[in-house]
Amino acid sequence: MKYANFILEPSRGFVFAYVPKVACTNWKALMRYMAGHEDWLDNRLAHDRARGGLRYLDPDGADAALLRRDDIPKYAMVRDPYGRTLSAYLNKVEKRLPPGPPETGEDPFRAVVRNIEAFRAARLSDTHPSIDFEVFLHWLRDSKSPFTGDEHWTPQSVLLRQPDMHFDMIGRFEDLERDAPRLLRAMGCDRGFPTQRDVNFAPSGAQSKLARYYTPAARALVEELFAADFDTFGYPRRDPAAEDPADAPADAPAARPGNAPDIAHDGPRNSPGTPGPASSTKADIMTDHSDILSRNWYYIAELSPGVFTPGRGFKNISVARRALEAITVKDAGCLDMSTMEGMFSILLSRRGARVTATDTIDNREKLEYLQKIYDAPFDYVPHAPVANYVDFMLNMQASRNFAPTRAIELGENTPYGYDLVLSSGVIYHVHNPIEHIVNFRRLCKTGGLVVLETAALMSDEIEMVHDWRGERQIYGGNATWYPSTRALEIFMRAAFLEPLGFTYINSAGQTDLKLARIAIVARAVTERPFLPEHEAIIRGSELYRNYDFKPIYPSARLTGRSQVAPAVDTSRLLPADDLRASAIREHPPLEYPEDYLTLKLDDR
């Protein structure tokens, strides 16, 4: 396989060779800065060879002679093979598990995951029931798949054409704080090294996970596969499970063998520059946050400048966030029904809402860690029951408002219920989606809002499909039912919720079904908001008369009317008067910035 990892910066007369999983997004951003691009921090353009505006060289073609010239300095940065290999696995493989069937326009690494799964099923099924780090390494060594030649796990010595290619300076990722400024001075760059936050790229957290992933077998495979990297760049073979790289001093690189390239050594041809502030090394990062970063995270959240939790970055986060940003939440009492580590609760709290966050599991340690960092006080209730959830929440409110001498409140202003009820990623995990939509209305004050985000079937019919399709699952995990978009609309209207607007994305998909992630913003009302064209359908349907809706009536009397009545800027949403798939497709998905997937220190 041919690799073209050499980038020429013609105005300064040097070449930089990037290595994937070695801060390559940051380095490409700097190369675009030096090339004069104002949008140099756009990480999408950093990796877009057609539109990024960088000059990539072909070492095996017309540019071979240029790369051999001694008057053109060449620079690079390398990484400990243990950390680089695990980072590639976490970022390109594990995040795409479980494997699913092909889909038009899918992420290309999903095909890689399917290829690994086919190898596992054929060769390793007796010892490995599912894909893990060891399976990935066996696949790299034994499968002979063309995917094993991807640059993200190709040996660095191959990418950098060692030992044939001479480099004037090679920095180490582990010594980033020391080596990046020295490389930038040599390049004549007047910018400091950009942080992960600057380039909007969350790290994989591989350095904090070495002990969890490196079995003796995994260590042996990495040392076999990347023997040339250990030898060429002077990295010691060691037990990564016993020695966390975060504990290694940043200014103490391992000794190099005599034939190794000069690691961050200033040669005679380097031109002076003005270095800016360097980012923290991974070792420095772990000094402050190593314990919390080692946990399993759902959300990507910034802990300190450039330091992010290793969350999953699911695209539906953008959909829910877009819906919430269209709502004025100041002074509103908000209920976040399945908060995980509290990303939405933090954002709502920072915008002036009074938030109660609940979950069926206990993420208290991680959530409180983020609350302190973001200065976002709100109530957190773990182990909230799925059954009798409404009674549980109302009883909790009653306990907080009870006093022996207090009279019973009557009328529209009561201490019960919420001005905004948020449910993101819940509906397809429960056995009765309709009951949960009813519960949203029971907990929402009249005039308040419900934001419902879920996976949904794109269909014009009122229907639901189960996660099990034949002998396989659509998504896997603990999923149950996927209502159609049309069903969600009708269920909400039947539950006295009037859809005002929505946002959506087409799901990446693991099935031939047409799924979407949709967030619907609906107002709690006192009359069912059926449109005239719905009457014939609804009046003949059990949905109109079903007794499952009756708990809404006493609950609405108890919760009263919202005194805040949060406003909705519907111009920032798509119109929700018709949620049949055919109507939805008339509206292309809204723009969802990549940084919507990440909670950042300055977010509000």
Automatic annotation (TrEMBL):
Keywords: Glycoprotein, Golgi apparatus, Membrane, Methyltransferase, Transferase, Transmembrane, Transmembrane helix. GO terms for cellular component: membrane. Residues 271-282 have a biased composition (Polar residues). One of its GO terms (biological process) is carbohydrate biosynthetic process. Residues 247-262 have a biased composition (Low complexity). InterPro entries: Carb_sulfotrans_8-10, SAM-dependent_MTases_sf, Sulfotransferase. It comes from the Bacteria. It is a single-pass type II membrane protein. It is found in: Golgi apparatus membrane. Residues 237-283 are annotated as: Disordered. Transmembrane segments: none annotated. GO terms for molecular function: methyltransferase activity; sulfotransferase activity. The keyword Phosphoprotein does not apply. Pfam families: Methyltransf_23, Sulfotransfer_2. This is Methyltransferase domain-containing protein. The lineage of its organism: Bacteria, Pseudomonadati, Pseudomonadota, Alphaproteobacteria, Rhodobacterales.
